[in-house]
Amino acid sequence: MSPKTALVTGACSGIGFAIARGLAMRGYDLVLISNREGPLTDAAHTLSQATGRTVLPLCQDLAQLGSAQSVYEQVKARGLAIDILVNNAGFFFFGEVADAEPAQAERLLTLHVTTPSVLCTYFGRDMRSRRCGRILMVSSISAFRDFPGIAYYGSSKKYLRGFSAALRSELSVYGIVVTCVLPGATATALYDSSNIPVEFARKVGIMAAPDFVAEQALSALFSGRAECIPGVANILLTQLAKNTPQKAIELLRKHAPWLPRSVLQ
User: Could you say which of 72, 153, 174, 191 is catalytic?
Assistant: First the structure.
């Protein structure tokens, strides 16, 4: 039997790299996708040397329309069948919708919504024909509550959660597992370390380590669970957010020092 292969997007650092390493240690060859060619090449070399698995780096900007088709065609051209698809790539920006840079907003929505959905169409179709496969979608606990300042990010993660649930229902009858992992704050390059003390937050437990999130996600995926929120603290935060009255959210917006207040004065 040929080795099984996993495709991981956003794989050169953070949660994506940790997931890729976890899959390689479980015996999977890898296809790594990122738009950062140098770090991607380094990540592929590191994982190959550490695990002995075949690792193929594909440099692709997934925030561009048509990128899902390009990835699929490159994979098929190499004669590879993807047994596990991990949609992890993402980025974050904070601020009100009216202040957002339109081009940046379009890139986020393409990266978080369009590309992972279409990748599921291409590779999910192949999995369905083989009657086997697994798909892991990386969402966020921000999917559970709408907060000011993260309208683009939170809403896109909410979409991923809903899309995962529907896709799971569609593909489960063909023997395919779809799992959605919803991490809380994680010590990755998603956050600007010049403004947020990421390493300190990880040490004191405010942010989770990527390795912990990755292992929780893979455990959920291989056990066939629909959703996973890594960490007890994040489970409690999710419940708190879900039960927070809308009036409290509006009060937070009115007095939040990190959002503009001039129109309210």
Answer: 153
